[in-house]
Amino acid sequence: MNENKSQPLIIGHRGAYDKAPENSLKGFKKAIELEADYIEFDVHKSQDGALVVIHGNDILRRMRYNKSIDEMTLSELKKLDLGEGETIPELWEVLKLAKGKINLLCEIKAKGISYEVISLLRDEDMLNSTIFQSFYVDVLLEVKKLEPESDLALIIPITEEYLPEWGKKKELIETVIKLNFPIIETRFKNVDEVFVNYSHKHNLKVFVYPLNTKKIIDRYVTLGVDGIIVNSISKAKKVLEQED
User: What percent of the chain has pLDDT over 70?
Assistant: First the structure.
């Protein structure tokens, strides 16, 4: 990460969410063209062992498939239409597109695939330009064991319907601090000035998602968060230009 950057990192949520199908090569290419700092994407594993970039089984259900990702072969997954002629990419395809052009916020969605993900990134010499995120503590600990210098973000699963009091939020922040992960990530509605200040006091960076409007983006830029995971890279760019 760029430690000297005063403004938050602009992270394209699943690519350029408002410009192209999510988690698609077209979306990632658009994010590069819009000059986001990072692209955020999700990694799963197919039945026959391919690392694929797709949000989750919710995408399959949306397409009226009853199988899960790990029950489908790469060939089957490649037949699915994400829209605009885009198909589900393999991780190596995303790395090939992104290498030397943009940084990565890679969410490891499935357990047991960390070694394969790390190996592929290591082979492409892209570990230094990657932040790993997960909801699973054990996944991040596995990544840390494999690559001790990796930047790690623990996603705190506080839903929009459940906004705990400060005491509970403080416990969650302290959990991340004790694990020695450098980044805490959560939905923007759970983050306020106290949350940011307490995290920063303990040298913990704060990433928030998903930010959709200029008003919301501006609020969290003003709060001083370190990364904004946005559905519109162009809106985020305009807000940051106004902040200069």
Answer: 95
Q: Which residue has the tokens 């052009």?
A: 101
Number of domains the chain is built from: 1
Domain holding 125, by residue range, is 9-243
Asked if residue 138 belongs to a domain, the reply is yes
What's residue 66's pLDDT?
81
CATH number, domain with residue 191: 3.20.20.190
Task: For residue 196, tell me if it sits in a domain.
Answer: yes
Write down the mean pLDDT value for the chain: 93
pTM attached to this predicted model: 0.94
pLDDT given for residue 2 in this prediction? 39
